[in-house]
Each structure stands twice: as structure tokens, then as C-alpha cells.
TrEMBL record, chain A:
<dbReference type="GO" id="GO:0006450">
    <property type="term" value="P:regulation of translational fidelity"/>
</dbReference>
<dbReference type="GO" id="GO:0005524">
    <property type="term" value="F:ATP binding"/>
</dbReference>
<comment type="subunit">
    <text>Subunit of the heterotrimeric GatCAB amidotransferase (AdT) complex, composed of A (QRSL1), B (GATB) and C (GATC) subunits.</text>
</comment>
<comment type="similarity">
    <text>Belongs to the GatC family.</text>
</comment>
<dbReference type="GO" id="GO:0050567">
    <property type="term" value="F:glutaminyl-tRNA synthase (glutamine-hydrolyzing) activity"/>
</dbReference>
<comment type="function">
    <text>Allows the formation of correctly charged Gln-tRNA(Gln) through the transamidation of misacylated Glu-tRNA(Gln) in the mitochondria. The reaction takes place in the presence of glutamine and ATP through an activated gamma-phospho-Glu-tRNA(Gln).</text>
</comment>
<dbReference type="GO" id="GO:0032543">
    <property type="term" value="P:mitochondrial translation"/>
</dbReference>
<dbReference type="InterPro" id="IPR003837">
    <property type="entry name" value="GatC"/>
</dbReference>
<keyword id="KW-0648">Protein biosynthesis</keyword>
Automatic annotation (TrEMBL), chain B:
<dbReference type="InterPro" id="IPR004413">
    <property type="entry name" value="GatB"/>
</dbReference>
<dbReference type="GO" id="GO:0050567">
    <property type="term" value="F:glutaminyl-tRNA synthase (glutamine-hydrolyzing) activity"/>
</dbReference>
<dbReference type="InterPro" id="IPR014746">
    <property type="entry name" value="Gln_synth/guanido_kin_cat_dom"/>
</dbReference>
<keyword id="KW-0436">Ligase</keyword>
<dbReference type="GO" id="GO:0032543">
    <property type="term" value="P:mitochondrial translation"/>
</dbReference>
<keyword id="KW-0067">ATP-binding</keyword>
<dbReference type="InterPro" id="IPR017959">
    <property type="entry name" value="Asn/Gln-tRNA_amidoTrfase_suB/E"/>
</dbReference>
<feature type="domain" description="Asn/Gln amidotransferase">
    <location>
        <begin position="403"/>
        <end position="552"/>
    </location>
</feature>
<dbReference type="InterPro" id="IPR006075">
    <property type="entry name" value="Asn/Gln-tRNA_Trfase_suB/E_cat"/>
</dbReference>
Length: 223, 553
């Protein structure tokens, strides 16, 4: 789907960071945060319109690690999980702008819009195990692509692609010690279906049902 | 859930599904394993042309392996949860392993070191910079919907593994081979699924989810099951020596997938099948040989080989096609945005300023700590102690046996070549008979050395020494001298006594004496044997021979 690309700029705050990637239509929403120079777009409105399922908290744009807590990568996963974002905002002077600013890109500057065929939708649904539901869902997908099209306007001549905005920093390596994990009860509480201490999932590795069957199934799905 | 109401029956059912699951576990795992490596060559894979019958005899097998080795570490690759075997389901799962929102991966230094150590031991080039990628696929035992792996730039590349196996017509020739290691990559293991077909549900245990794996990709340099099995055993031994993986195949710590194809030498490679579900080195050989034969037969009968995944069924010794996902899997690889590149450094001097040298991985340090590798050790054994190569294999294969052997050698005047005979025959014979491990041996290396010293001094005969050894096995607290005395096994070298016994033997074997006197000196050995029977093997053979020769002349 969308390539995940990072484009090198002189400093962190002017980095174009498209976080949608292939999963943008599945488990995670097309949460993208685009900062090009002083331009900044958010996909908040787009996201709200999208009938994406499952809707999980991490789909929300606001949950994306966009503050100082993420920038060093030095904290243990457990700490980050429980960390209070607002307090860490106070502690860090984030290099990422705190408030969005934007100016719209003219349609004329964009490439021709992409049309998504039903066959492609079918393939995507199979890959991502999501249901676009109806024409409205497909329209939304096309809108998402259109939104991403704005990236074509960004001039990337002579700019080397980068994997991560932190690629010049050493990756922190932790000690091989056990500090978490004994929380089966807590985790199992999050699951709708359990058997003894197991999570329960639908059977896997079975031939996927046809388009019609699948939409019927998803509507009545227990899982 | 209806199941949760009836406790014991549910448990029984769970166990059943678990057992069923064990047999498909590798299959599942393989879904996670990288397919890209192989697909790259798929365009050049052609059906070997069989113009006439008889060509099939020219067909040769081509085998490549992909091996997943679980890293021996306390905690998982990216989370601080314990790497635990056989613990209650979901009892060792961090929030990251369950893919809860807001969690981020933090790399375990031990896992990086293990991969570097393994790479060094396999003559790999260690990439100073390596990258992590997401490989997407949907399966309930991988809740994130992707596996973090190293697709673009793995931690180690371009290595080699030298292995030996017994070949030739009598399987007594040591043949040495080399297989190239394409790459070693760090990646996450998946959880385990227990399939319950009756209720149409899958039970998920995430204890294994996130455990560090090293995936080793071997080039298709092997041609038969024996070679592949030997390569796997050698790798297993190396990993165990390094301590980077415990290497127990039946417990899934080492999982082997084989890519098998056949072609006529000199021609492009044939279409390959992947064989999964192989959980012992012996089955590696059987599965591959079966698959090569099957493919030859298909081509011989004018059929074509389909690129498919097959599972090995150890009961029937055959491979059977697996229900594969329709069409080509699209893993939608993308850079892992939460992990900056991983850097390892050559030495302390190359660590950049501002980076704590105690927190980084340094290659020269790990290199200095590399233990003696099995291949080097075998060569040293043959060279230093002048023992047979096949004995050096046995010494290295059995955990701690080399150390045992060397301790005996240090403590005895006996030749190492004599010592090895005792270690191979008496010690291992007894251990195997009682299915004991070396550590459980009642006879210590020092005690064996004592026995060999007594034997060497000429105080007892070698057959008597064997009796003493069996007694030592039964009563390890007794000293060798004490046993020799108690069993009255001391060598009889009293000439008077020997004369008497020899006379008796000569008297009771007139025919043999007659033959000897007629010129057939070989028959003297029969009389020697009779004397030894009389003395329970305690007579000094040199003296006895002299006496008998005298009496029969």
C-alpha cells in the first residue's frame, strides 16, 4: 500500500513522517502526521469519517507517540505504558511542534486521483481481515489515498530516504533481566473470550470465505 | 463458553489439542519464517526436462535449510518478560508481547550478543549497522499483526559452516563439507495456538510470543538428507558450545525447514518445495531423502513439481502437502519505525563519544571470549592424542566427554590411544546400557586413571581390569587397589604357581600338545587361553607363553 518513508531534513522538527504504511487500513488507522517545513497536516478529520474496524484505542492519532517520551527510546516498555503523557510533556522540551499549522494544497498540484477497484478492495480485505463494508468504505479509502497524495508535492530532490527520525542515534540496549510479564489475570481480563488461561480466537489457516459470506460473518461475528 | 463449566473434561480436551498441536507447531512457526529469501530465486526455477527414461538417475537433490534457533536468554527480545518453558499459559507475557497499545520495543543486549557470537563462530561478516523491519501477517498467536525481523539488513551475513559426516560405501569415511550461511537475522517468535476443531476455536498462549530467535539461512549447498542432518547436528553442537541456543529440537528450540528440489547437474535449479514440521536431526535426513525421491518419481512419470509447502509425517516417513494460503503471501515489509538502526562496534576505540561503552556490543570482546568450537576441538584431539577421527566425533558430541577424556589422560601414564578405548568401550558402553548421562557416571575420570595406572604397571591383566571396572561401577566408593585385592585379580606372576597350572593344562590337552610338537605353533594360543580360564585371566601372559613353549618343545 503506502510506502512508509522518512525523509531526511536538517533537524528533527522538519521531518516528513508518514506513519500509515500497509497497516493504515487495518488494525491501525491512517494516522499520519505530516510536517514539511512549516506546513503541517493532520488526518484527524479523515480518520473520524473512516468506518474502520476494529476501532482500538491505538488507532487514534492522539495515541501516536509524538512527544518526548518516545524520542529517546530509553524507557522500559512498562514505564512507557504507564507513563503520564502530560507530565512527560512538561519534563521534555519536544522537538516536535506542539500545535499544528497547515495550509491546503491545491488540487491542481496533485497527481490524478486513484480509483480503487472492487477486486483490490477484496484483496485488501483478505490481507488485512477488515471489512470495508460498502461503497462508502471504498470512498473513504480513496479519500485516504488522496490525502496521502499531498506528499507528492513535497520536494524530495537530493534528500536521502531514512528509516527513522532517530537513525543517527544509537539504539538503546537493555540488560537481560526480567521485570514484567507475570500478569496473566490482568491480560485475560481484556479478552472477551477465554478458556482457562487461554485467549480464544477463531480458527486460523482456514480458507477465507467469499466476499458475501465474509460480510455476513463479520456482521454477526462474536470475536 | 460451555467448555469452562466442566473442569476436568476441559482439561483433558485441552491436553488432547495440545498434543495435536505439538505436531503442527512447527508448521505454524514456519508461517512466520521468511519466505523472501527463497522467492528471489524462483524465477530461475525450472522444471528439469526429462527427455527419456533413465535421465532421472542423473537427477540430483538440492537442499537448502532455514533454521530458527531460540536464543538462550533470560528475557525476551523486546520485552522484559521471562523466557519460560512449560509454564502456565500466558503467565509470562509482557504488555508488549500482547501488543497492547502504547507499548514500545526495547532491544535485549543479550540477544544481540548471541547473534554476534553465533555469527562469528560461523565465519560471518557482522554488519556494524543492521535494521529492523515489520513483516505483516495475520494470525492469532501474533497479536501485533506483524513480526519484527531483519529483512533488509540482517545482523550477520556471508558465513560458512563446515561439517563432517560418515559416508562412503561402509559409512566409515569421514567426509568434510561446507555450506554457506547466507545470513543470520534477529526476530521475534510467535505465540502458540492450540486448535480445537470440534468447537471451531483456537486457544492462544502468548508465553512464547516475543522470544528472541536467530534465523539462520543456509544456501542450497547440500545434496542429500545425510548432509543436511550432519549440518544441522554440527550447528546444534556449535550453538550449544556457544551457549546461544540450547538446541533441543524436540522442544522447538531449534526448528528446521528444508527447501528441496532436484535437477540435472549443470542445469538451472528445479522447482522447490518447502518441508516443515521436522523435529529431530534424524527426521531431517529422512524427510529430505523422501522428498528428493518423491520429486524424482514425479518427474520420471512426466509430472511437474509444484512449489508448495509440505509437512513431514514422522509416522509414515513421508511428506504430505499442507493446506497453504491461497496465492502468494504479501508480507508488506516495512521499516520498523520504533527501532532506530542497531549498531555494533569493532572495539572500544570505535565507540562514538557520548555512548557508554559498557552498554554497547563490541565484536572484539565477544571474539576473545569465543570457546573452542567443535571442529577445532576435534582436530586438536586427533592431532594431540593421535586418536581416530571417528573417536574425536564421539568425544565432542557427548557433553563433557572431552573434558573427561583429558582428565583421564592427565592422570595416567597410559597412552591416550589406550585411554580412548576405555572411554569409548567401557565407559560409554556402560552409560548407554543404563541410559545415563556422563555427569551421572559412577566412575570418575581420576578413578579410571587409577585403574589404567594399575593396568599399565603390569599388576593386573587387561581382562582383569575390565572386571575391576565393572566392580568400580557398582561400588564407586572403593579404591582400585582395594577392589583388585578383594577380587583376587592381581596378576599371578609366581613362577612356581604358573608352572603348576601350565603343567595341568598340558596334561589335559595331549592332542593340542601333539599338534604343536608337529610344528603348528599357533595352537599354543589355545593352551594360553586354557591357562587364562584356569586363572580367571590373571596369569602373566608373557611368563605363561615362555613356560608353555618350554613344555611343548
Amino acid at each position: 500500500m503506502f510506502p512508509c518513508c522518512f525523509i531526511r531534513r536538517s533537524f528533527l522538527s522538519s521531518v516528513v513522517n508518514v506513519r500509515s504504511g500497509a497497516s493504515g487500513l487495518g488494525a491501525t488507522a491512517p494516522g499520519s502526521k505530516v510536517t514539511a517545513g512549516r506546513r503541517l497536516f493532520t488526518s484527524q478529520s479523515l480518520h473520524r469519517a473512516a468506518p474502520l474496524r476494529p476501532t482500538q484505542p491505538r488507532c487514534r492519532l492522539s495515541e501516536l507517540p509524538a512527544n518526548g517520551a518516545w524520542s529517546t527510546g530509553r524507557r522500559a516498555a512498562g514505564c512507557r505504558w504507564s507513563s503520564n503523557r502530560s507530565s512527560s510533556n512538561a519534563d521534555f522540551s519536544s522537538k516536535i511542534p506542539q500545535f499544528p499549522t497547515w495550509e491546503p494544497v491545491a488540487e491542481s498540484q496533485l497527481p490524478p486521483p486513484t480509483k480503487v477497484s472492487l477486486d483490490l478492495v477484496d484483496k485488501l480485505e483478505r490481507l488485512a481481515l477488515v471489512d470495508f463494508g460498502n461503497q462508502e468504505g471504498v470512498n473513504c479509502l480513496e479519500k485516504a489515498i488522496r490525502f496521502a497524495d499531498q506528499l507528492h508535492v513535497v520536494n524530495t530532490d537530493g534528500v536521502e530516504p531514512m528509516d527513522s527520525v532517530l537513525e543517527d542515534r544509537p539504539l538503546y540496549l537493555r540488560e537481560d533481566t526480567v521485570r514484567e510479564g507475570d500478569c496473566a489475570e490482568e491480560l485475560l481480563r481484556l479478552s472477551k473470550h477465554i478458556v482457562e488461561e487461554y485467549f480464544v480466537a477463531p480458527p486460523g489457516n482456514i480458507p477465507l470465505p467469499t466476499r458475501e459470506e465474509r460480510s455476513a460473518m463479520l456482521k454477526h461475528a462474536d470475536f | 463458553m460451555a467448555a469452562s463449566s466442566s473442569g476436568s473434561s476441559t482439561l483433558k480436551r485441552t491436553l488432547c489439542t495440545f498434543i495435536r498441536y505439538r505436531s503442527v507447531r512447527c508448521v505454524r512457526q514456519c508461517n512466520a519464517s521468511i519466505r523472501t529469501v527463497c522467492t528471489s530465486g524462483s524465477t530461475s526455477q525450472l522444471q528439469p526436462k526429462i527427455q527419456s527414461k533413465g535421465v532421472s538417475s542423473q537427477l540430483r537433490g538440492v537442499v537448502g535449510l532455514e533454521i530458527h534457533a531460540q536464543i538462550h536468554a533470560t528475557s525476551k527480545l523486546f520485552a522484559c518478560s521471562r523466557v519460560a518453558f512449560c509454564s502456565p499459559p500466558n503467565s509470562s507475557v509482557a504488555f508488549l508481547d500482547a501488543s497492547l497499545p502504547g507499548t514500545l520495543p526495547v532491544l535485549n543486549r543479550r540477544c544481540v550478543e548471541a547473534a554476534v557470537i553465533t555469527g562469528l563462530a560461523l565465519n560471518c561478516t557482522i554488519n556494524r549497522k543492521s535494521l529492523f523491519d515489520r513483516k505483516h501477517y495475520f494470525y492469532a498467536d501474533m497479536p501485533a499483526g506483524y513480526q519484527i525481523t531483519q529483512q533488509r539488513l540482517p545482523i550477520a551475513v556471508n558465513g560458512s559452516l563446515i561439517y563432517s559426516y560418515f559416508g562412503g560405501r561402509k559409512r566409515n569415511q569421514v567426509l568434510s563439507r561446507c555450506v554457506r550461511i547466507k545470513q543470520i537475522q534477529l526476530e521475534q517468535d510467535s505465540g502458540k495456538s492450540l486448535h480445537d476443531d470440534q468447537r471451531s476455536q483456537t486457544l492462544i498462549d502468548l508465553n512464547r510470543a516475543g522470544v528472541g530467535l536467530m534465523e539462520l539461512v543456509m544456501e542450497a549447498d547440500m545434496s542429500c538428507g545425510d548432509e543436511a542432518a550432519a549440518a544441522v547436528r554440527e550447528l546444534q553442537l556449535i550453538l550449544q558450545t556457544l551457549g546461544t541456543c540450547q538446541g533441543n529440537m524436540s522442544e522447538g528450540q531449534l526448528r528446521v525447514d528444508a527447501n528441496v528440489s532436484v535437477h540435472c547437474p549443470g542445469e538451472p535449479l528445479g522447482v522447490r518445495t518447502e518441508v516443515k514440521n521436522i523435529n529431530s536431526a534424524r527426521y531431517v535426513a529422512r524427510a529430505i531423502d523422501y522428498e528428493i525421491q518423491r520429486q524424482k518419481k514425479v518427474l520420471e512419470n512426466g509430472g511437474i513439481i509444484v512449489n508448495e509447502t509440505r509437512a513431514f509425517d514422522s509416522k509414515s516417513g513421508t511428506t504430505i502437502p499442507m493446506r497453504d494460503k491461497e496465492g502468494l503471501q504479501d508480507y508488506r515489509f516495512m521499516p520498523e519505525p520504533n527501532l532506530p538502526p542497531l549498531f555494533v562496534y569493532e572495539d572500544e576505540a570505535s565507540v562514538p563519544a557520548g555512548v557508554n561503552p559498557t552498554q554497547v556490543v563490541m565484536i572484539d570482546r565477544l571474539k576473545a571470549e569465543l570457546p573452542e568450537l567443535p571442529g577445532v576441538r576435534r582436530a586438536r584431539m586427533v592431532d594431540q592424542y593421535k586418536i581416530l577421527p571417528e573417536h574425536s566425533f564421539t568425544l565432542v558430541n557427548e557433553d563433557g566427554l572431552t573434558e573427561y577424556f583429558e582428565r583421564v589422560v592427565r592422570n595416567t601414564k597410559a597412552e591416550p590411544r589406550k585411554v580412548i578405548g576405555w572411554v569409548m568401550k567401557e565407559l560409554l558402553g556402560n552409560l548407554n546400557q543404563q541410559s545415563l548421562k556422563l555427569a551421572q557416571s559412577p566412575v570418575s575420570p581420576e578413578a579410571l586413571a587409577d585403574l589404567l595406572n594399575v593396568l599399565e604397571s603390569g599388576h593386573i591383566s587387561s581382562s582383569a581390569a575390565k572386571v575391576v571396572f565393572q566392580e568400580m561401577w557398582k561400588a564407586p566408593e572403593k579404591a582400585v587397589e582395594q577392589l583388585v585385592k578383594e577380587l583376587d585379580l592381581g596378576l599371578v606372576s609366581d613362577r612356581e604357581k604358573l608352572l603348576k597350572i601350565c603343567q595341568k593344562v598340558v596334561d589335559t590337552h595331549p592332542e593340542q600338545v601333539h599338534v604343536i610338537r608337529a610344528g603348528n605353533k599357533k595352537v599354543l594360543n589355545k593352551l594360553m587361553g586354557a591357562v587364562q580360564t584356569e586363572t580367571k585371566g590373571r596369569a602373566d601372559p608373557v611368563q605363561v607363553r615362555a613356560i608353555l613353549e618350554e613344555m611343548t618343545s
